[in-house]
Design a protein that fits this description.
Distance between the termini: 76 Å
Shape: elongated
Radius of gyration: 31 Å
Number of domains: 2
Helix content: over 70%
Structural class: mainly alpha
Order of helices and strands: HHHHHHHHHHHHHHHHHHHHHHHH
Strand content: under 5%
Number of helices: 24
Amino acid sequence: MQYSVFDLLKLLGSLGLFLFGMKLMSESLQKVAGDKMRSILSAMTSNRFKGILTGFVITAVIQSSSATTVMLVSFVNAGLISFTESIGVVMGANIGTTVTAWLISILGFKVDICQLVLPVLGISLPLLFSKNTNRSNWGGVVIGFAILFIGLDFLKNATPDINSNPELLVFLSRYSDYGFLSLLIFLSIGSILTLIIQSSSAVMALTLVMCHNGWISFDMAAAMVLGENIGTTITANLAALIANVSAKKTALAHFFFNVMGVSILLPLFYPFLHLIEKIVVSAGFNSPFPSDSISLKETALAIPIALSVFHSAFNIINTTLQVWFVKYLATLINRIIKTNEEEEEYKLQFITTGLLSTGELSILQARKEITVYAERVEKMFFHTREILNPNSIKKQGKLKEKILKLEDVSDNMEEEITNYLTKVSEQAISNTATEKINQMLNVVTEIESIADSCHTIAKTIERKKGSKVEFLDGMSENLLKYSDALVELFCLMIGLIKEGKQTVTTDERLLLKELDKTYYKLQQEHFKNLRKGVYKTKTGIIYADILNELTKIKQYSASVIDMLSPSEEQKEV
């Protein structure tokens, strides 16, 4: 055999160049689209058919069903779309992935693409170094597209020629004469390759090149394509192992959808292939099956188009059949993966699947996670308010346990979100994005400080109980009224975190001043009671400690509000 280790390395390098081009094009397109793509995805999923169209369009544009799925999971988590609606987008994303095969079949094997892309590279290179972010991103799109096809051209040249290496054909033919078992073997090869390379589009390109060079027959290549459809869902399910319930459900729905489609097709595999053959021949192309009238070379040249037709037809028919059973599929998935609300409450919701392919999208995910973080600390604050109520003495033990548990959750979330934002800041991001990250890090610190104050109040109440200190009439009421006023401040803070930045009204700013007046009034009253000996010093210290921690909560909340929506005076400073 004349195929050396160096030739194998050239093949792997060509595949790597193809993957790099696809990654660069996909990431640049996501940067160009930014939040608009997410707005389209959330607006166009009101029914399953719009969802299919949306999944197809976005995946066809960004050339990555994985990116579409990651965005989709974030929308399900955020409650913007339901899990049932997400299934339609998954179906559309499957059809969208077939665009890659068509691009390769039409352009990659028909035209000397390198003669076209090199001038395009020369023209678009200045765009990549432009100071204008949008122009730079468009430059990345064009250059990624060019590198993708250069990689494909290298891939064609790096694969061994059957005439020079007939041993390859003999090796593969050993596994193609077992009838139905051969289909399962090549289906498994497609799944495993997709799992290893982590890109069904790249494996599809490799399959097309193998067909073009005569390595494998049309039926075995079609079996590999079916395997690639399953392989890409296994990758998604592995990624979802560390994710939340919504992510697991969406990934499992994708797996079931593709496996059921493959299972339906396998008994009709060869009749379906002959139908594809008729379609291809009627369109003016040669048959993908060898015959006496068609040479092996002509058959090999016809296979890529036939395989593209097969890939598209399979996904379109699979979607057409299963779209009517979306609710039943959702019910099945919900029965397999049951939501444990208590368990989910103590997990990260949005950043468990790692960084998204652009810094801007990762920042958006982090902001949603910070919203969840603030809401959990708000829940902690409500438990703290309840523990201050003298009527909740019997529940104080359970309330304290909940506060301690939420304190651990708060510490973990602060660490995870901070680590995530630090990793995002290490990417190539704009100055505006860097400012957002710095602001979000400060917000996370303030939220954690609120959690610490709630924890301190719970320990102070325990100290009060251990010291057998009793508050006089009016002391607990003062603390409850003060904490009630903080609730409105909390709602304002969480609203600002959700929106990122918005204007705070004059009345809402007056709330801060009123809280300052309330604290000053309670403090002066406390000092007066101490001087008059209304209550003992130990009682006064515990009361003051709780009052001061509530005031710290007010200050931390106000700090977040000022960061997200500074007043005119603060802007001038």
